[in-house]
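Anyone able to model this chain together with inosine diphosphate ribose?
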Amino acid sequence: SRHERLALAHLALDGLSLGDAFGDTFFGRPANPDAIQARIDARGLANAPWPYTDDTQMALSLVAVLRDKGYIDQDELAASFAAHYEPGRKYGASMHGLLRGIQQGRPWREGATSQFEGQGSYGNGAAMRVAPLGAFLADQLDTVVEQATLSAEVTHAHPEAIAGAIAIAVATALAWQLRQGSLLPSRTEFIDLILPFLPESQVRNKARRARDISETTSVEAVAAMLGSGYAISAPDTVPFVLWCAGEGLGNYTEALWLTIRGMGDMDTTCAMVGGIVALSCPEPALPTTWLTAREPLPTWVK
Ligand code: R7I
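re: yes, here you go
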């Protein structure tokens, strides 16, 4: 039912926003690898509150549109992104002009297709916000692909950004489907289930590599191989995320501690891993202590 689908979307939103806020606590002072490593070793949580960033801010709009329409209405989504644009949320550099343009009446498609001299953005911003959509449509994988594409296009016209969004949305839907069975798959099996849904792209090629990495490889080595988002692009982020999510299925907090060890774009890698893995966990999927530390979500998504 619509009610159950919306509950799954909210679970993904919580998993995503908690990952986003958790990951963001590792930036700031001091943001050096030694300090981060010490926190990882001690499982040290930052003091509350943990503010969320653009990943969550834009995911809220996806959930609101799915709640109101039941599908991705691109005009509504663009309007919601613009209405809820908060410049301080650490958006990707090109999003400020794009969202201000929509606020001023510029058609979203014109903005999205003219980013980066007409290439469209291949940033990871379409993938970072999409987990709730995968959850909302978790029983219909072909619809997930179609709707994830529509949700990406509003801001990210580049095929790599779209492939990244499809990958994260399908991964989230599959995480829920797999939780219904008795046994969670290995990382290799998990990524193997996602690959057939991905368009030909760097994202897919690197996802295939993520599937095939040997079991003895450390997360640090995987991050070096695949990229962990320093370039904040979809191909530099999504394959690593699929690896982390596949390794961390069924255990939300350990999945995020694993992801942090990859460094890189930590708020966004954790947002994506958190959104996916939340759907794979037995209830209660998310730790209450973490949820109370996260900045509360606004009431307009309820
Ligand atoms: O994708 P986007 O929304 O950024 C999301 C990321 C997340 O980590 C957020 O938390 C935030 O920190 O940023 O924003 P975009 O500005 O569209 O893309 C992000 C970056 O990808 C850009 O700043 C560019 O560095 C890069 N990029 C490109 N570079 C060259 N040519 C994206 N597309 C291109 C391109 O076509």
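The mean pLDDT is 97.
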